[in-house]
Amino acid sequence: MKKSMLAVTALAAVGLLSLAACTNGGTTSGNVVCSDGGTASTEGKVLNIECWNNEFQGRFENFYPDFVKTVKEGDTSYDLLRDGTKVYFKITANDNNGYQNKLDADLKAQDSAKADDKVDMFLIEADYATKYTASEYALDVKGDIGLTDSDLSSMYQYTKDIVTVDGKLKAVSWQATPGLYAYRRDLAKTVLGSDDPATVQAALSDWTKFDAVAAKAKEKGVYMLSGYDDAYRVFSNNMTKPWVTNKVVHLDDQIKAWMKATKTYTDKGYNDKTSLWDTQWGKNQGPKGDKVFGYFYSTWGINFTLAGNSDPDKLGKTGDVSTSLYGDYAVCQGPASWYWGGSWLCGAKGTDNKALVNKIMYTMTCNAPVSNAITRITQDYTNNIPAMNAIAEDATYGSEFLGGQNHIALFKESAAKINMQNACAYDQGCNEQMQNAMKDYFTGKTTTIADAIAAFKTALDAKYTGLTYDTSFDNVTL
Amino acid sequence: MKPLMKKNRKGHINYNKWGYLFLIPFVVVFLVFQLYPLFQTLHFSWYTYYEDTGLLSSKPVGPDWCGFANYIYLFQHSTVRHFYLFELDLGKIEINDLLYYAINTILIWIEGFIPQIAVSLLLAVWFTHIELNLRFQRFWKTVIYMPNLIMAAAFGMLFQMIFARSGPIINTLLQWGWIKTPIDLGDSSSWTHVIIAFLNFLMWFGNTTLLLMAGVMGIDTSIYESALLDGASSGTVFRKITMPLLKPIFVYVFITSMIGGIQLFDIAQIFTKTTGGSQASSYTLMMYLFSLISDKQNYGQAGALSLLMFIVTAALSMTVYRTMHPRPNEAREQATSYRQRMKEYADCPATIAERGRNAMSASTEKGVR
């Protein structure tokens, strides 16, 4: 009897060992799903929000009234609300379609997931918003979640139009994203003689004048732009046709204009040859990097990226540009009217927390006092027309980070005029691969524009099935 | 049914058949989790089967039978690529994508493997030398093995930051005055190759050293001692004794390293941030496969590429094995060895040579040749 017991346990051990041996060190997905044991109530006690960075998490923790504190749980953490609900932010970085892949997989598994593991809300950004709003996985904000027309009345119309499908509103946003040019006041004084936003804007009001200032900056040893992709969105978000229509890819004239402008700038040494988001690009926004006159940003970038990069040692406003650039930046409209990005909140189909989703959406996007607070503290341009108008006309408002400037007044007009009609579901892949493929052309490694475009096509074909290319890709000359 | 425990005539229990019982768990898990998915992958390579990543629908497109369409697609794609050897411009050519990625993979592997095998052989010989007796051996063996413990992705990311334009290496070179302005090593296809090959070398040379050491320790030390007594130099000992006797382990190391090289993925993917670097010169076959599965989600094409990679790996392995283990040709070997022995005996005193020659002719008469 004893011997057979020994044999059985030995067999079981071998079986377990062979199972372990079978996972050949393959990569496992990073996101650990932690959930509370489900409680029996009409609403779940766990809210899962999927996003690609911690921008919304920051807004939520700082401005949502019911937020109590962040609680650490193992190697993740959750936000605790006053009624005991736990809010988990599941963050997957955007690089290489990573966030979309994860979100797609989770949404498709929604029906079979446990109540506490279901995706309740997810964020989408302009580059792929239309893909999710057109699907069944984003709930109807009015019909399913219960927001009313009067709730949504303060929003900028374009933020609603872009995410409306068949007459149904599928997502809401807390921000409007007019594009701007953020310049360094000390370098503006050196190159132009003045740091007053109106004067600087007059000197940069179109591309010809912008190029002229770039030449002047070069003489003083200052780069006009940090790298190849800085001006990309100024062109790409002004395209006249979408990237892909009915699976046919189109190369817009605006993209060709970007290629030409950037090649000229690189050859003449007007940019510092960095790529968007890499370490040198971020360093140049601060006191220790190379001297760059300014950056093309949208309003979300001021608080989310520029503020941190301008003052990496967290010294605050020192007044000394060799230690901290906090307070040294100001913004102006720049050479063109454009927008960049924007994040929307969606309720996920199958969520068990509809009432909480409704409350979060209302508070963060439809509530004037909250929007007012967000703008005053983070300089983000929030999606509330009355609140923005009030701040624009408030003579006492000035952002400390921007050296006392009231930048909301600057964008009151342009925010209302943003046109997102040409966004399509393939934008993220096309934009990323275009910037990648062109980098070799700008550095001179790819010698002709035709070769660079061929490389773009190859890279895009490795991302999407079934695309064809129209004649705009043939015989491109800059 | 015959009982598993058989008592033979002397009353002892026979556990012979128990081996099969112990094998069953492994076989079952292997069949279900490795062999079946393998066949499924190959099966789908003949079907159109993909997720339309521009939409978000709950069902994929297919599977629909399409014959060899996936294979034809993979072989059709070609792009113009520019080749550079550091600063030297080698010109450009329109080359098939698959071929280009295969060349990238093999090149990076060779660049990493040659230093790896050289250093590993050297270290293996030093650590096991009967005369050298290096101190702190256990410390050295631990240290050289440690890079293998780090996840390749973390390794790639660490060195990507070290070699970045604003990173420590470039800053140090600037301080020493070796370069005037900061350079971006990622812009150079040759430097990206060299760094990725170097990282591979760092990760695996510890493993290779230990394997080769095990091989060398399996050689009888009395052979070494007699060779040293006869006055053989270290080089001769290495060439004539160590290398031939090490051949089985060497072949194992070569083939496994080659298979690993063809599947080179983690380090290149992270170091070049999934782009493959300038001119996609470090874009390996596995990175392409990963893109087909994870981004494009085209399972048909991914299956086709998997099968092609399998065929290439199998063909290369067979070639290597056959080259290192040629089929013996008895007559040729005997003739060569006879000639060699006569040459060696030619320098010996006459009596021994006589003795040897007589012994040779005697065996020839007996019809051995």
Mean pLDDT score of chain B? 88
> How is the CATH topology of the domain at 81-324 in chain B named?
MetI-like fold
The largest pleated sheet of chain A is described as:
7 strands, mixed
Please state the structural category of chain A: alpha/beta
Estimated share of beta-strand residues of chain B: 5-15%
Description:
The complex is a heterodimer of chains A (about 475) and B (about 375). Chain A is of the alpha/beta class. Chain A has a domain at about 45-175 and about 340-390: Periplasmic binding protein-like II (D-Maltodextrin-Binding Protein, domain 2), CATH 3.40.190. Chain A is built from 19 helices and 17 strands. In chain A, the strands form five sheets. In chain A, strands 2-3-4-1-5-16-8 form a seven-stranded mixed β-sheet. In chain A, a hairpin with a 2-residue loop joins strand 11 and strand 12. The longest helix of chain A has 21 residues, at about 1-20. Chain A is globular. With about 375 residues, chain B is mainly alpha-helical. Chain B has a domain at about 80-325: MetI-like (MetI-like fold, Orthogonal Bundle). Chain B has 14 helices and six strands. In chain B, the strands form three sheets. In chain B, strands 1-2 form a two-stranded antiparallel sheet. In chain B, helix 3 (about 95-130) crosses helix 7 (about 190-215) and helix 11 packs antiparallel against helix 12. The model of chain B has no long low-confidence stretch (mean pLDDT about 90). At the A-B interface, helix 1, helix 3, helix 12, helix 18 and helix 19 of A face helix 1, strand 5 and helix 11 of B.
Summarize this, please?
Chain A is an alpha/beta fold and 478 residues long.
Tags for this entry?
heterodimer, A: 478 residues, alpha/beta, D-Maltodextrin-Binding Protein, domain 2, seven-stranded mixed β-sheet, three-stranded antiparallel β-sheet, 19 helices, B: 369 residues, mainly alpha, MetI-like fold, two-stranded antiparallel sheet, 64% helix
